Here is the input.
Amino acid sequence: MRAVSVFTLVLAACAAPLAWQTATPASPARQAVDTDAPVTADQVNGSIDQLGTLEFRIRNNAARTIRRAPAAIAVPALMQAAKSHPDGYARFRSLVLLSGFNDPRTRDVMAQMLRDPNDRLRSVAYTWFEHNPDKAIVPRLIEALGREESEFVRPALTRALAAYGSDPAARQAMTGLVMKGQAFFRSIVIEAIGDYRGAYAIEPITDVARIDGPLQDDAALALGKIGDKSSLPVLAQLQQSAPRESQPAIAAGICLLGVNCASHESYIVKSLEFSIANIGFQELLRGAANALAALGASERAQAVVALIERGAPTRDPARAAIALALGTVALRNAPVLLKVLERESLLAPAAELLREAFDMLEEDFEEERFFVTVRRSYWQSAKDPAARKVAETLIKALEF
Here is the structure.
């Protein structure tokens, strides 16, 4: 069962038309990706009914069946189920699975769901519009800020709005949220602005970075992601004054600005190693793991390697933090992770860490995007044995 909702964020491969119906000779390896027999309409409808069952294995197998169905069968059934299935959770999962088929009709279904009473459906719709730009939707996103207060929904809404940073109204709304509201929501706002390189909010984010507290790490990382070197003096000053637990994020921020990256990354890795070896430094451990995740999602492959190599032999509580950090990289920049996993020694331990991360995360939409990317990699890597092995291993380990 899914248990933990957490998030730091951005960059995953965009959903593309799924090509897994392509005919190729059957083999034991392929059985992890497809079955020989075509999935029928009756099987799709029966599987949709099973998406809301309490038994995880049944739900998971139902989703696997639907993903393997021809789009001409699956898409209409999923659209109808998302709109009117009597089981609310089945509606939610149907909408998530629909997003993976990249059908042009999905836009209208998602727009309709923005006012659905089911908060899970609204969250999926907001996230879909984050990754599928549509400027016409911005007024509806801004209007929703006044009524969406759920910890489950509001993060998806604010991330969606951050994706429209070229819109003056969206910039104004996001800037105002940096200094307003609960710390949990402000953390999501600051992180999202950083992920979308929102230079328009440098000033308030800098103000947050100067204050010791739970948002300092988010602000330091956001300034680094935005990439404006005018933030360097602020981060350099924080290296002298901020508490130890915030130092990995500050080091990552400076690295993201392109300054002394090798030495700062080395410092973060050493902080992670120290906090793994010494019980009682869990905050430092989380900070170091999250800092490496931010670097990894920003194309620093060695940061991803460090997470896998240091995380593989660990046990909880250290292991959970590292697994979640690696899961963040998977959901925000799947291509860089898949490339790293072509190193054979890293593939098996990384797959296990990802399985644990996905069990903890409640990021169904983002996970579906990751699954789409991996399956697409499988079909596109017929002449690349290393890439195909990575995709095949992940499909088996994560059971999608």
User: Anything to note?
Assistant: The CA atoms of residues 100 and 313 lie 34 Å apart. Confidence is low (pLDDT under 50) at residues 1-33.
